[in-house]
Each structure stands twice: as structure tokens, then as C-alpha cells.
Design a protein that fits this description.
Helix content: 10-25%
Number of domains: 1
Radius of gyration: 16 Å
Order of helices and strands: EEEEHEE
Length: 113
Amino acid sequence: MLINFSLENWASFMEPLSLSIIASRERQHSERVPKVAKYSTRILPIAAIYGGNASGKTNFFKALSFAKNLVVRGTLPDALMPVETFRLDTQCASKPSPFSFELLIDETIYEFS
């Protein structure tokens, strides 16, 4: 289960951005929020992404798809990767576009960056 995805310098996102489904300390409806006992962390069972037109929702999902394909399929040696850096700042073209995943697998949290 994906519990956190972070990105930076991708398409319309210059600054770091994260989607986390780790619950806040809010106690309302806590009986419906599963807890990972090993980490004393509560994981939300659902998440939503919403916003106005042209606010970056599609670019966020394109970044998630790109990062997933990079991990699952990999790349050929010496192949160029089609990275879409932030376009409104020319200095961003030469900067890295970091991605980070936190996954919950069999009650263990793994981070992949």
C-alpha cells in the first residue's frame, strides 16, 4: 500500500509536494482508521485529490505513473529518461527531479527514493 509519495521539480511543481495517507492526530472516527501497531501509525483507508482546473492534478498522476514505471520497468543502459522538469524556471532544467515512495508491505514500511 502506498502511504506517501513525494516529488519535486516535475512539470508544474517546482517546490516539494507530497501525498500522504498517514492520519493526523484527529480522534474523530478513529475506530474506522486502521493502525499499524509496529509503528504506532494510523493509515487512512482512502484519499482524495481535488482542485480547480489547471491546478496540477493530472501532472501529479503523470509523475506518479512515471516514477512507478521507472521502478517497475527500469531503463536501458545509457538511455535518456523523458523527465519533465519545472518549465517556468530555466535553472530547473539542470536540477534533479527527486521522487520518493513510502510503501506498507506486510506490516513493514519501506522507503524508496
